[in-house]
Amino acid sequence: QVQLVESGGGLVQSGGSLRLSCVASGFTFSIYAMTWHRQAPGKERELVAGISATGGATNYADSVKGRFTISRDNLKKTVYLQMNSLKAEDTGVYYCSRGRHDFITESYDYWGQGTQVTVSS
Predict the structure, then answer these.
(1) To the nearest 10°, the Cα dihedral for 114, 43, 89, 109?
(2) What is the mean pLDDT of residues 51-58?
(3) pLDDT tens digits, 60-116
(4) Bridge partners of residue 59, in order along the sequence
(5) What does the alpha-carbon distance between residue 24 and residue 11 come to, in Å, rounded to a whole number?
(6) What confidence score (pLDDT) does residue 77 get?
(7) So what's the pLDDT on residue 5?
(8) Can you tell me the distance from the alpha carbon of 121 to that of 15, in angstroms, rounded to the nearest whole number?
(9) How far is the C-alpha of 20 from the C-alpha of 81, rounded, in Å?
């Protein structure tokens, strides 16, 4: 069955960095776009970044542009989120999700369990 397992979250000071990983299994990873979302306490889940199946296209929420980088390794079936210059407002649970297509859309069919990121100010 499809599984997405996130890791790499933790507690970091404002201005610090974290690298999240999401390991996929149970499907042909290389033909699906992948995304990262986050959910802060009391807020709705929001898209952070997406990457196409080949990695040739990416998009980012305006709030993270220039600070976060999404990438993928199709041989390792892993998608990453490098987060630099972290701010307190980046705090939340970060989720990996599988897109329904090879290109980036706002349609997802599987989600990981999430990894907590806490940025102290």
Answers:
(1) 40
(2) 98
(3) 999 999 999 999 999 999 999 999 999 999 999 999 999 999 999 989 999 999 999
(4) 50
(5) 24
(6) 98
(7) 98
(8) 9
(9) 5
CA distance 117 to 93: 6
How many angstroms separate the most distant Cα atoms in the chain?
40
Q: What CA–CA distance (Å, rounded) separates 63 from 68?
A: 9
pLDDT of residue 121: 87
β pairing state of 34-39 and 92-99: antiparallel
The tokens describing 108, both together, are 């997802």
Question: What values do phi and psi take at 88, rounded to 5?
Answer: -60, -35
Q: Which of 7, 119, 110, 4 is nearest to 67 (CA)?
A: 119
List b or e across 36-47, with b for residues whose CB sees 16 or more CB atoms inside 10 angstroms: bbbeeeeeeeeb
Helix (H, G, I), strand (E, B) or coil at 116: strand
β-pairing verdict for 10-13 and 115-120: parallel
